Amino acid sequence: MDTLQRRFPEEIKAAVARYPAGRQASAVISLLYLAQAAYGQLDKDAIDEVASVLEMDPTQVRGVAGFYSLFFERPHGGYVVQYCNDLPCALRGAEDFLPVLEEKLGCKAGETSADGLFTLECVMCLAACDRAPMMQVNLEYFHDLDAATLDGLLAELRARAAEDPPRRAPFGFGPPSEMAGAAPATGANPAGSGPTGQGG
Length: 200
Ligand code: FES
Description:
It is elongated and about 50 Å long. The relative contact order is 0.18. It is α+β, with helices and mostly antiparallel strands. The model is unreliable at about 165-200 (pLDDT under 50). It has helices at about 5, 10-15, 30-40, 45-55, 60-65, 85-90, 95-105, 145-165; strands at about 80-85, 120-125, 135, 140.
């Protein structure tokens, strides 16, 4: 129950120090990223430790985690592929392209590839409707996808992974170095049905 504190003691201190005394709960998102890196996912132990460190109720912490699409209560691949198949993208071919994406990733939507590298999720609008088919991979956007561009992209991602193996960290490849010093990016769960299943 101290996995987070053993792995990131200095990062926790720095995150909490950004806020006035007694307002440590404001560091909850930073600590959730750290906990996800430490535990591999935001399971009950991870949530409970964040709550304990920040003197919060675990339900509150789970509520925050459930609102954002980059927090996961289950293990996920090094690359989380969020593919938009919302209506505007569907009208531009996103539905037809989904089977191609699934085949090249080696997993269906909602699943993780056998090599643990990719988790594929279908999400609602990512605000790039005019460039569909499009997807967000961890924090990067990729537009105007077709089979050929996807082949090149996946080759690049696999090459990156070979150099820096996934560690089931916040974005798949280790906690961002600026984590303790800057508010990390988050993505609100589309339609309240994000991967944690805690949609808010
Ligand atoms: S509907 Fe897909 S990005 Fe907007």
